Amino acid sequence: MQTLFKDVLLLFQFIVGIFEGTRKLFVPKKAYSWQTLIYLSFYSWGLSLLAVGYVQIIIAFLGWLFLIAGTAWYTTDDPLRVPGTFMPVGAVITGFLVSTFAFGHPEDVITPRTVVLWPTISGIITAIPEFIEGTETKTTAKIPKPEVREKIIVLVASCMLISCWIQFYFVMDNWLTKYPTLLTDNFERSSFVVRIAQAETTEKNRIPENGVNILDGIQIKVEQQLNKTPWSQVERWLLDATNEVSNLGNQVINEKLGQYEESKLWSTDARVANIPSGYGLDLLSIWLGPSSDPKGYFLQKSCRIEPIAVSTRTPVSLGQVEGKNTVAEIECDRLSKFIADEVPAKR
């Protein structure tokens, strides 16, 4: 019975201890405390929900100031340091709040600028107390000792470097969103970009999808224009194949790549050659943007255009073509070829 009574007493003391700890955390000993500032911030935000216009903005602004001040006060009373530095963890939390307050938006609270400037602001917040001395009621400015100034310079510079690397990430992400073809390039010689998805870059996974889409779209349009068309019209079309393919390419690029900035970095061209059974037509999509290959690269899809007799539906030689009795039949490769070289000269 006594054992049960002791267990109940210990449990009661444990609950009371938790309650007392919670009460000390949330109930300030005096009005001038960090808890008061936190409560004022919540109170201000609650009032801002009931206000409109400039009044709402002013009240919300005061709420942010109370929250930042209260958080900074609480986290610096007994600071926990970031391992390996003299930066308090509270400065990191306060820096995030300051960055969110300064650079966030109502519709998007955390923006890229918020994240980029967070480390630098945290470093500056850590350095500020080193330039101030005094009590809670009276403070004066001071110049830190040389060894402290050195620590401050190293810390702030390190935080700025972290901000630069975070900014570099957002820049790269923005580039790859607008220019997705850059992802297919070879980064083996880069000292700051590493491909982690694949151990190595092969020719197959280097083929840019947008370049393939351009050629596929041009192929469909060329086949629609030339297939089963009188041979005489096809030969006239082939005489001006460069302009014809360029016009079709512009249409395809606008249709398939209109949402990308890189649409301006693709061009199209054509090469026509005589073959024993008719003509060979090479469709080219050329990348004009930056590349790890000094000569650049382009994609190629080859087509064969042959004359077919309408009556017998059999191939005929070029010397046997008879006006309207012969039409063209076109057949293109299924896959596009990736060629890391200069575009071949026109024949």
Describe the structure.
Strand 3 and strand 4 (278-287) form a beta hairpin. This protein has helices at residues 2-26, 34-50, 53-77, 89-103, 112-127, 146-178, 203-206, 209-226, 231-239, 241-256; strands at residues 132-134, 139-141, 266-275, 278-287, 297-309, 326-332, 337-339. The radius of gyration is 35 Å and the shape is elongated. Helix 5 (112-127) packs antiparallel against helix 6 (146-178). By secondary structure, it is of the alpha+beta class. The relative contact order is 0.06. The chain starts with a helix and ends in an 8-residue tail after the last strand. Mean pLDDT is 79; it is low at 199-203. The strands form 2 sheets. Strands 3, 4, 5, 6 and 7 form a 5-stranded antiparallel beta sheet that branches. It has a two-stranded antiparallel ribbon with strand order 1-2.
Q: Could you write a compact summary of the structure shown?
A:
The protein has 347 residues and is α+β, with helices and mostly antiparallel strands.
Task: Name the descriptors.
single chain; 347 residues; alpha+beta; 5-stranded antiparallel beta sheet; two-stranded antiparallel ribbon; 7 strands
Strand content: 5-15%
Largest sheet: 5 strands, antiparallel
N-end to C-end Cα span: 106 Å
User: How does the helix and strand content classify structurally?
Assistant: alpha+beta
Radius of gyration: 35 Å
The chain-level mean pLDDT equals: 79
- If helices are DSSP runs of H or I spanning 4 or more residues, what is the number of helices? 10
**Overall shape:** elongated
- The stretches of 5 or more residues where confidence is low (pLDDT under 50) are 199-203
Quaternary state of this entry equals: single chain
The SSE string, one letter per element, is HHHHHEEHHHHHEEEEE
The helix fraction, in percent, is: 40-55%
